[in-house]
Amino acid sequence: MIAVKNNLKSEIFPTKENKQIETIYCKIKLNDKPKQEMIVGSIYRPSNHNIQTSKEICEELADIRSDNSKAHFWVGGDFNLPDVNWTNNSHGNRYPKEIYANFITTKNNLRLDQIVELETRKNGKLDICFTDNPGLVEDQTILPGLGDHGVVVINSKLKPNRQKKKPHQICLWNNCDLVSMKEEIKKFDKTFKTKFSIDSDVNSMWSDIKDIFKSVTHKYVPKN
């Protein structure tokens, strides 16, 4: 899962048909200049010996990186690879060597750095993050999670482009034309009872009620 604040310009990458791996990617606009974007990805690799799963995760990662070569890249998740030293590319023997090779080779080919320095579960780094701009990292910390994994929090120097909110209008109810509102709602009441019965569609009835309240508010309630 990826959560993005609603005041940021973002779009999710479409999911491929018959996709079997647990990954998701989105694009976040950093400013109004062309190609100033950030790709954020979330990956889960099950703690099994499935070589094909690892291969598909790495192939998708490489494809998205290739198609967005000028974007800032931040990809994290639970990779279940605690015995990898991402600095010197060494690893243990918990999983088949092909799994390690897939991820280490992809990291090196895409020129990514693994930036999580602290353990996220017991004495291992299961939850990690790759980026092509490690110099933008200001600090990081691990917070308690809902399960047995810690939550990785990374602060960076990247500043996304926030959408300007539309001016918020405030209804001045103390100055409304209450008499006219009541008269119009009384007329609506008669029409409503004639139009609908106890067996009528609830959504249709609610639509009419909502429309009349919007209408009288617009007509008789001044706004600042």
Topology:
Layout: E1 10-12, E2 22-29, E3 37-44, H1 51-67, E4 72-78, E5 84-85, E6 90-91, H2 97-109, E7 113-114, E8 127-131, E9 137-143, E10 151-156, H3 178-195, H4 202-220
Parallel strand pairs: 3-4
Antiparallel strand pairs: 1-2, 2-3, 4-8, 5-6, 7-8, 9-10
General description of the model:
By secondary structure, the protein is α+β, with helices and mostly antiparallel strands. It has two domains: 10-156, Endonuclease/exonuclease/phosphatase (Deoxyribonuclease I, Chain A), CATH 3.60.10; 173-220. Helices cover 30% and strands 22% of the residues. Strand 5 and strand 6 form a beta hairpin. The longest helix has 19 residues, at 202-220.
Keywords:
224 residues, alpha+beta, Deoxyribonuclease I, Chain A, six-stranded mixed sheet, two-stranded antiparallel sheet, 4 helices, 10 strands, 30% helix, elongated
